[in-house]
Amino acid sequence: MKKLLVVLALFVSSIAIAQPHHYRHYSAYGHSYGNGWGWVAPIIVGGAFGYALANRPVVVEQPPIIVQPSNQIVINSIVYEKQLVYFDDCKCYKEVLTPVK
């Protein structure tokens, strides 16, 4: 949406600049005089757009913290490890604690 507004604003400002300048009057010697401040509004609009585009907030994403459970359990100062073992009687896997050597 922001890009669309910027493109639309640039398009409208380019049309405004391309319009004929009817406010210029010429003196008897061929010198023009009139509104000499026609550059102020485009400078202000351009500065506002430049400021808005340059000062975008910086987003810093922290990496996710992944906590993995340990497979080892300590019971009575003996370290056991969880393992999945297949049993034929039930044709299934069961979690079994086996001592770590």
Structural description of this entry:
The chain is an alpha+beta fold and 101 residues long. The protein has a domain at 2-54. 32% of the residues lie in helices and 26% in strands. The chain has two helices and five strands. It has helices spanning 2-18, 40-54; strands spanning 25-26, 32-33, 72-75, 78-87, 92-99. The strands form two sheets. It has a three-stranded antiparallel sheet, with no helix packed on it. A hairpin with a 2-residue loop joins strand 3 (72-75) and strand 4. The longest helix is centred in the first third of the chain and has 17 residues, at 2-18.
Measured between the Cα atoms of the first and last residue, the distance is 63 Å
Q: What share of residues is helical?
A: 25-40%
Q: What does the average pLDDT come to?
A: 77
Instruction: Supply Rg.
Output: 38 Å
| Oligomeric organization of the protein chains | single chain
Chart the SSEs and their pairings.
Blueprint: H1 2-18, E1 25-26, E2 32-33, H2 40-54, E3 72-75, E4 78-87, E5 92-99
Antiparallel strand pairs: 1-2, 3-4, 4-5
